[in-house]
Design goal:
The chain has 323 residues and is α/β, with parallel strands linked by helices. The chain has 9 helices and 11 strands.
Length: 323
């Protein structure tokens, strides 16, 4: 599906293409994952202008089963490098202003190990229903076939009656160890962020996600805020304003039906503790929000999944220009 680039080889082909088209505005970093894949950090800016004069913003996605996030980021990078989106339509971004005033870093594929095991490029509801999709996500529970296995942050395959194959949400981080990327600093996803943050000192982080079911069934996209359990109250007003700008832009696009208010992260128990351990220090110093765009649904075509994520990124970049 050439207009839905999400696989590792497609990303690497695009990186080579971008470097040939406009090498002066693109820098490529990476970390080597245990599985041998490179997890890339792609930074776009006019590097002739000192970093001290610019705003630094990070965009990422951790989950292999959420390919619309990768496709959306590739679409925006294409705009920044070529002036056109992946469909050949002119960008609405003021590239001269953006490149001179911003440092934009992207991690388009935080878990290529998992992504390459996915049976389809895009989950649009045609391959399987959500129950089977969740078994692809976390693995088919050996003790309860046809149902999704556990959700863990870091685990050792020797300690569990684990699915075979392991669910695609997990990155292999050692001979026997696996991790859900956004729940541990041991993941390549966090390692590439830390590497880039040490260089650019990001003031904002937009983490892009997809989900299959929403609290309100008539919505197909939403913005998540930090959990009230560990948010920084001083950051919340700006996060809420940012979230509303994304929601308003989504509402104007045909086929997108956003929850009109941003939603605080609702995890409790063990999952909340994973987030507290890995995200609380970041929320204290960086503005962070998340997208959730509907996945594995016939109403959400590949183009609509991609477009929802690219709109959110474009809004965020334009917001930077008004600061």
């Amino acid at each position: 599906m050439k207009n839905f680039p999400c696989r590792q080889h497609e990303l690497e082909a695009k990186i080579k293409e971008w470097q040939k088209i406009n090498p002066d505005i693109i820098r490529i970093d990476h970390v080597d994952s245990y599985s041998g894949y490179k997890v890339y950090g792609i930074t776009i800016s006019d590097f002739t202008i000192p970093s001290a004069q610019k705003r630094a913003h990070y965009f990422s996605q951790p989950h292999a089963h959420e390919p619309g996030t990768t496709a959306g980021m590739i679409d925006v990078i294409e705009q920044l490098v070529t002036g056109k989106d992946i469909y050949g339509r002119p960008t609405t971004l003021n590239l001269k202003e953006v490149l001179s005033r911003a440092i934009l870093s992207f991690c388009p594929n935080g878990n290529p190990f998992g992504r390459e095991k996915a049976p389809v490029d895009c989950w649009d509801g045609s391959y399987c229903d959500n129950e089977r999709f969740w078994c692809w996500m976390r693995g088919d529970d050996p003790e309860n076939p046809g149902h999704m296995w556990k959700r863990l942050n870091v685990w050792d395959i020797r300690d569990y009656n684990a699915p075979d194959p392991v669910g695609i949400v997990y990155e292999q981080i050692g001979e026997f160890r696996y991790a859900e990327p956004n729940r541990t600093q041991e993941s390549s996803y966090f390692k590439i962020f830390n590497k880039l943050d040490a260089q650019y000192h990001f003031e904002a982080w937009f983490d892009l996600h997809q989900c299959e079911e929403f609290r309100q069934k008539n919505y197909n996209c939403e913005v998540l805020l930090c959990s009230k359990e560990f948010c920084n109250p001083a950051k919340e007003p700006e996060n809420i304003q940012w979230a509303h700008q994304v929601l308003e832009a989504w509402a104007e696009y045909p086929g997108l039906f956003p929850d009109p208010a941003p939603v605080p992260l609702s995890y409790t128990g063990e999952q909340l503790e994973y987030f507290r351990a890995n995200w609380s220090p970041l929320h204290q110093r960086i503005n962070i929000i998340n997208t959730e765009v509907k996945n594995n649904s016939p109403e959400m075509t590949p183009e609509l999944q991609l477009k929802a994520q690219s709109i959110a990124i474009e809004v965020s970049i334009k917001r930077l220009m008004k600061k």
